[in-house]
Amino acid sequence: MDLTTLDRLPMWIGGKAVAAQTKRYGEVTNPATGEVIRHVPLGSAADVDAAVAAAATALPAWRALPPLRRARILMRFRDLLQAQRKEFAKIITQEHGKTLGDAEGEVTRGIEVVEFATGIAHLLKGEFSENVGTGVDSFSLRQPVGVCAGITPFNFPAMVPMWMYPVAIACGNTFVLKPSERDPTLAIRMGEVFAEAGLPDGVFNVVHGDKDAVDALLAHPVVQAISFVGSTPIARYIYETGARNGKRVQSLGGAKNHAVVLPDADMDFTTEALIGAGYGSAGERCMAISVVVAVGEAGDPLVEKLAQRARSVNVGAGDSPDVEMGPLVTAAARDRVAGYIDRGIEEGARLVVDGRKPTVRGHEGGFFVGPTLFDHVTPEMAIYRDEIFGPVLSVVRADSLADAIALINANPYANGTAIFTRSGHAARRFQQDVEVGMIGINVPIPVPMAFFSFGGWRASLFGDLNVHGMDGVRFYTRGKTVTSRWPDDGSAAPGFHMPMMG
Ligand code: NAD
Predict the structure, then answer these.
(1) Mutate to test the pocket of ligand 1, among 178, 231, 387, 417 (most ligand atoms within 8 A of CB)
(2) How far apart are CA 335 and CA 28, in angstroms?
């Protein structure tokens, strides 16, 4: 079905598109034009109930299917995704605003998680010990947790949900996705592609909505595990509420990622890397660099080069050729970012490049803010403290690597960070002493590959386990350990005392 022609999106429940029960609808806009392009149902508790019921019905047969056969369905899913990734990128660009190339990139990163999940038969292998006691063997295995739910942000409508459901489903769980209401269409396309790949009805479901739908998932007694990615205040709320309701929760929050630049860094390479990491996807990435910590003499030449390159970034609609940076997702996001730029000036930072009110011909209604660069930002300023989630780079000056590391370690967020240097010694000290979940060494956006796990520290992740990689497999399974004996006639029976097998 060409979902982009619909005015009202359906839910995806039990293997098919179904009309929502809710009467509440939200608007989905094209950020490059400002036009309302379709409406998304804001699901009620009854909608959530229907999705969870479908997932619960599908669970027994799905979890009983051998992992290899589950993997074969994921292999077909992967091939279909790969073949249609350009079509998916168009949907993402239309609703999110990012460039087509960037959108295709996120689909590819999502596909990599599916590829990881196709190895599930190997990943679920347990351990076996013979003769833990005389005639007694012991083995451990991992079993699916049951019905799992994922609640995801607007900024990666393909990749972030795919951090979750391929692994959950491969492990033998069934899944209910509550995607962002800002760019909800791709989730329904994923349901269609899964159906084409042969996934049994009800294994993957989509319920659209806002806080009401999320709260219904958090309270639902059948839902066993919640994965969340979004802003820190909501991540904390999800973690606390889910845990109170007896669910396992992994809840990824916001970020304020610093890049440290030492004076010995290759300044041209570093400038190009920081421009992409700061302004790519209009700064709406949880791994975007938003603070540049320029150490010692790195400051002046770096700011000059960054300013020059920031002024040349090609801003426009994400589907126009050669555009490097698209609009922000909503008018509210644009106004919030512009408000932070005003505040940075008021608080005394030096505005080097001003991205307020860029002209994008033919897209006057779009939600654009151009690349913005501040220098001499200090830790007390709001533009340093808060996650702006827009194309605003703040340069903080530091005297030494030790000061830079102390600054990063004092920040409440701890998602990703990077260092630019030619010194292996400095890089090693940084990787060892910095208290952040994901580290880049001359790599500005160190997003781990699917077979490693993704997650930050402190206010960037609530819960013990990261997403995808082996942490994902652990999150979506429960451990079980079996101790077995096959006594012969006449073997001594266990007595009253605590069994001592050795
Ligand atoms: P958001 O927190 O506003 O929304 C995320 C999800 O929570 C959405 O599905 C939304 O419908 C739901 N939600 C919103 N308000 C809610 C409420 N009051 N109660 C219950 N549910 C609610 O985030 P966003 O604006 O969509 O995404 C941007 C944020 O996500 C940024 O803070 C960014 O750093 C973060 N993010 C983090 C990571 C990571 O890996 N740590 C990855 C991507 C995005």
Answers:
(1) 231
(2) 18
Instruction: State both tokens at 462.
Output: 């609530």
Report the C-alpha gap between 367 and 258 in whole angstroms: 26
Under 8 Å between Cβ of 227 and 472? no
Angle (CA) 464-470-476 rounded to 5° is 65
Sequence length of the chain is 502
Domains defined for the chain, CATH in brackets: 11-253+460-481 (3.40.605.10), 257-441 (3.40.309.10)
The ligand 1 site (C-beta within 6 Å) comprises: 151-156, 160, 178, 180-181, 210-211, 214, 229-231, 234, 252-255, 286, 387, 389, 415, 456, 460
Nearest of 43, 372, 334, 428 to residue 208 by alpha carbon: 43
Q: Kindly report the CA angle at 155 between 259 and 210, in degrees rounded to 5?
A: 135
DSSP state of 297: G
Residue nearest to atom 22 of ligand 1 (CA): 211
Tokens of 169: 């489903």
Going from the Cα of 179 to the center of ligand 1, the distance in angstroms, rounded, reads 10
Please tell me whether residue 391 adopts helix, strand or coil conformation.
coil
Tens-digit pLDDT profile for the chain (502 aa)?
788 888 999 999 999 999 999 999 999 999 999 999 999 999 999 999 999 999 999 999 999 999 999 999 999 999 999 999 999 999 999 999 999 999 999 999 999 999 999 999 999 999 999 999 999 999 999 999 999 999 999 999 999 999 999 999 999 999 999 999 999 999 999 999 999 999 999 999 999 999 999 999 999 999 999 999 999 999 999 999 999 999 999 999 999 999 999 999 999 999 999 999 999 999 999 999 999 999 999 999 999 999 999 999 999 999 999 999 999 999 999 999 999 999 999 999 999 999 998 989 999 999 999 999 999 999 999 999 999 999 999 999 999 999 999 999 999 999 999 999 999 999 999 999 999 999 999 999 999 999 999 999 999 999 999 999 999 999 999 999 999 999 987 777 777 777 776 6
Q: How far apart are CA 155 and CA 98, in angstroms?
A: 9
CA atoms of 171 and 473, how far apart (whole Å): 7
- The answer to whether residues 54 and 219 touch, using CB atoms and an 8 Å cutoff, is no
This prediction's pTM: 0.97
Q: In a 3-state reduction of DSSP, which class is residue 216?
A: helix
The three-class DSSP label of residue 450 is coil
- Residue by residue, DSSP assigns 70-98 as HHHHHHHHHHHHHHTHHHHHHHHHHHH--
User: Tokens 């903080």, residue?
Assistant: 396
